[in-house]
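Subject: Sanity check before I submit

Could someone independently write out the structure tokens for this chain? I want to compare against mine line by line before I put it in a report. The sequence has 95 residues.
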Amino acid sequence: MSFSGFSEDDIRKLTKTQEVNKQHKVNKTPVKKVTFKSNNTINTPRSKNILNNTVSAQRLGEIQEEFKKLDAVLSTDVKILRQQIELASIEYMEC
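---
Independent answer below. Compare away.
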């Protein structure tokens, strides 16, 4: 038999949770939070290795970005120098 769409099991579960809540209020015992400590701390060799790898990867990324910037600057400098050499050679040939 169901009561407004709820099965008997649902009603039993609801009343059980209500009873538990009432007991907590009567006893005034706070619900304790359970915290778990991880066994993997930063001091383990594997953790240190992973940390070193991530730091190395970040450094490598920064270095690659710097190389890209330097490559762009060098490309424009070479382009300007080639244009100047070409102009100088044309002027020399005209003389």
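---
OP: Matches mine. For the report I'm noting this point. The CA atoms of residues 2 and 8 lie 6 Å apart.
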